[in-house]
Amino acid sequence: MLMAKSPKDKNTKVVAKLVVQTLRTFECHVLSITTDNVSEFAEHKYIEKKLHTKIYCAHPYSSWEKGPIENANKLIRQHIPKNTYFSPLSDDYILFVQT
User: Fold this and answer.
1) CA–CA dist 69, 80 (Å, integer)
2) Contact 23/51 with Cβ under 8 angstroms?
3) Mind listing the pLDDT tens digit for each residue in 62-94?
4) CA-to-CA distance for 19 and 77, rounded, in angstroms?
5) In the chain, helix, strand, coil percent, each to 5?
6) Taking the complete model, does pTM exceed 0.90, yes or no?
7) Which run of H or of E encompasses 83?
């Protein structure tokens, strides 16, 4: 699991560039990406083009379609509860949670 803190909340263009930047090193291993069907991934075509991969969106209310993501979110929430603002969290802390 990889994590990165967005400098501007959930802006779709910023999120797309951050996803590409974060996964660029592992591009040859990124065969596909599965996401929630949320507005933050509206720029999915940009991500697909830059990483030469395919993005799939899970159906609404179908968390079983993305079990590994749900498990990772559960582990993250042990350190970063829901509704926590990420801006005060340091990059070192994000890396700690990722590890």
Assistant:
1) 15
2) yes
3) 888 888 888 988 999 999 998 888 889 999 999
4) 20
5) 50, 10, 40
6) no
7) none
Secondary structure class of 32 (helix, strand, coil): strand
Those residues whose C-beta lies under 8 Å from the C-beta of residue 51, and which sit 6 or more positions away, are 19, 20, 23, 24, 27, 30, 33
Token code pair at residue 95: 């890396």
Contacts of 8 (CB under 8 A, 6+ apart): 14
Residues 6+ apart with CB under 8 A from 24: 50, 51
Is pLDDT above 80 for 53?
Answer: yes
pLDDT, one tens digit per residue, over 24-43 is 999 999 999 988 877 888 89
